[in-house]
Design goal:
By secondary structure, the chain is an all-alpha fold. It has one domain. It is built from one helix and no strands. The chain has one helix spanning 2-60. The termini are far apart.
Length: 61
Amino acid sequence: MADWNREVQDATDRAEAELQRLIRYLNDEVVPEVRQQGSSALRKAAEGLHKLAEKVDDRKR
């Protein structure tokens, strides 16, 4: 029974270590990329809205 408990504990330790690696990867690699792409998309949307506002202004004249 002690061997089985040790195997379960070892598996749990390995799972926790892998989970920590996954969290580090997400924080270090994925999140910054999403933020960068998100901000780029917002800038493009803002540029499009600016152009649309200029067209609306031109029609008023």
